[in-house]
Amino acid sequence: MYSFEYQKAGSVADAAKAATGEAKLVAGGMTLIPTLKLRLAQPSKLVDLGGLKDLVGIKAEGGGVTIGAMTTHAAVASSAEVKKAIPALAALAAGIGDPAVRNRGTIGGSVANNDPAADYPAACVALGATIVTSKRKITADDFFKGLFETALEEGEVITAISFPAPEKAAYMKFRNPASRYALVGVFVAKTKGGVRVAVTGAGEGGVFRKKSFEEALGKSFAGSALDGVKVDAKGLNSDIHASADYRAHLIKVMAKRAVDAAK
Amino acid sequence: MPEGTGIGASVRRREDARFLTGSGTYTDDINRPGQTYAVMVRSPHAHAKIKKIDKSKASAMPGFVACFTGDDMKVGGLPCGWLVKNQDGTPMVEPPHPVLAQEYVRHVGDIVAVVIGETKQQARDAADALVVDYGVMPAAVSLKEAVKPGAPQVWEQAKGNICYDWGLGDKAAVDAAFAKAAKVAKLDLVNNRLIPNAMEPRAAIGEFDRATGDYTLYTTSQNPHVIRLLMGAFVLSIPESKLRIVAPDVGGGFGSKIFHYAEEAIVTWATGQIKKPIKWTAERSESFMSDAHGRDHVSHAEMAMDKDGKFLALRVETLANMGAYLSTFSTCVPTYLYATLLAGVYTTPAIFCNVKAVFTNTVPVDAYRGAGRPEATFMLERLVDVCAKEMKMDPAEIRRKNFIQPSQFPYQTPVALQYDTGNYDATLDMALKMIDYKGFPARKEAAAKKGKLRGIGISCYIEACGIAPSAVVGSLGARAGLYECANVRVHPTGSVSIFTGSHAHGQGHETTFAQVVSEKLGVPLEQIDIVHGDTGKIAFGMGTYGSRSIAVGGAALVKALDKVIAKGKKIAAHLMEASEKDVEFKDGKFQVAGTDKAKTFGEVALTAYVPHNYPITELEPGLEEQAFYDPLNFTYPSGCYIAEVEIDKDTGTIEVARFVASDDFGKIINPMIVEGQVHGGIAQGLGQAMLETCVYDKDGQLLTGSYNDYAMPRADDFPSFEVQHSDKPTPCTHNPLGVKGCGEAGAIGSPPALINAICNALGVGHMDMPATNEKIWRAANAHAARAAE
Question: For A168-261, which CATH class?
Fold first, then answer.
């Protein structure tokens, strides 16, 4: 890696102030550190959020959960509150990476990075989560802007993510055989406001909602409701691991399986 | 299972405590006083002319020590160890293999310069500052493209990119057999290119001693003496006496650490220039683009059969990718380690194989676990299934019908090898029983009820190991002998140090070799030390590859131990005032036959070093013996593997439901270690069959340059393999231990078993490796469409 300055943030305000210009925030570092090692990024400074205790923790609120940005995937996976309110979210967290990643990686880091094959963005979008930052609250629909792009502004730090509890939800992931990231991941949620379906891993622009599925499932929340719905391969990734056609097919298979497994 | 510590006991691996607690000493763990760090500047292009290299910025960087390019380092090229001749008798095209690129780069990762810094970071920063101006040229990348007329030329002297056009077998006899065949089965197949991925990346430290003028190279090698010979004699002109190679703990090789690599020569040469130690350690992404790759064949095969499914003749045409340069053993892999195995375990009377080796603008391709034999086995065992389909015969029965029978040994194949022994029905029967072959239709039906496609696939492999009889390989173009050396040093109190030319990089030699010593001398394991991997300590060695360690290195060890025992008898006879011929050695004691007069091994050892009462006029003091062993033939491990798979039609995912292995390795020293070798080999073979593949784009950029894209198998991809050793083993007839070697079998035998099972489940004629989820999904859909018709 290239050399950089290191600063341990004392508070969220401290971090927000420091995270300007070529400085970068580091949460769990599960993406950033390997990127630095490969010399693919050259930040002037790393602002470490690791010491900010008030960003860690899970609270049950209004039937849903609010998860502090520095809460690890392992903590989400094993949380009684999350398992009770949104078991699909706990299961998703339990399926991220490997134990080392789950014990270091954080929900805030994952969401802020917005890797197009990451799992959390699908949960945020399908569950209609709210991203809470040092400045404001942003709906998940508005937050994820494209590949590795979010609505975050310079000096804005994610502090928590609030998930309303759905009636039923499930996440089904088809893993890339090499990286084990989502080749296709589909999060289906039956919420008070209707059915929401979010797809990760497959789209050229990162996570997206599958409106045609939402409509069909709104009429009948059963896997078979998707039988007649066509999935267009346009706009889907095609690479050495899977063609766009195959991804389109998998979106439907994973969605059906998620609907049938939802609880 | 035998108790104790001798041959046949499943002694726990003595070396594992060191490895599992992080106390091993790998090359990168070694640091020398005043050490500097080297970074290799590698070509980002598959094919380019080096127009200019500007060192000015790099040399101004903090901590910069030195930078050398091909213009600075005018030394010999990296040698190729095996001369293969064309069918017309002319030699292969053997282009130079410069250590640092001369004028042109020929693959992504080709080394253009080395930059040395005081710290690793400084070396990297300075390397980043080196300006290389390339004139990019068109690249020949895939086999099929490289042999097309008008393809870009990797080497001017290799017209059509052909390195050699080689043949083995009786073409006329094959043509005659095809002319009268009742049926012919045909198959086109690809053996996918693999990247080896040893757990420990390659590393090298060069150190020059100003006082003596001696060079030391610490390196991740499977054969340090071979590196000393190749680098000393061919590349750097350093006499062996001034060059020491240390290959300490090595974390896996699988063949990729056999070869003499440029980085070894670079740090050794450069340390002589700057007079400071230099360390280079590959980053993982460097390993992907600089470790020699494996496999990469495109073949067409045809089998002629009579009306009953008896094989009459086999005809094979293969294109084999050499990459951009000829790596150490590259040329023999698709020839003498491949076509010679095409008889398999069958009596096919006539075989002809034509191999064209092809240069491409890719990383050199060389031996990788199995080396040629997996390619032969995959082709043959797939083709046999196609034959069974053609004849509407059961795959087990067509194999049985064509097996070489136990009464036919020694069996001369039509492709040069003479198998000394084997029993192929025994391993087939055992595997069929293990998997409950008869119960398969019921299991298929049960799977169908769950909406799954279940398939079963058989593979009966044979391999030629214990490499190799020097005279035989010499007559075939090898530029080295392939014997092994062992030295047994008995210390005065009876403890023993073994110096072996074999090299362990995961195989467990410190346990198995000690078991052989314990068995022969009756000395407890704690008093036996196995020393390997250092030319400064070990007399000579050809190293470890080709499942040769126990069959060749173990045999050398037995010969040396026998010499120790023979001398011990003389000493004991003198002590007991008996005739030497009356002295027997058993259970660690020299005993006068028929009496209770005895001397322990320790007493005899002490006498050898404290020769107060000693036959000094007839015998030298001391107790140390050395032996070289050159095998009389290859060894021929064989066996039967059966895979059973279940396919999810909706996603194309495949579950390996069961995998059974029945192997005949002859005599086994440590059954647990052998079982572990088979498990690892099968995982590697199934990795090739299901997941792994090296992908270049059309410009020669490596698309699978990291674990994000190169799919390594993981434990949860597989069931626990059921591994058994043949209940009717056939010990090797020509080495003293009766052993055959087991290191590569799993990787050789398993890919066709899995692909045969997948083809069986899907009802398709063939599927190339890796059988990815998408390929299976597409085939399953086509299958469903056919079924609906």
Answer: alpha beta
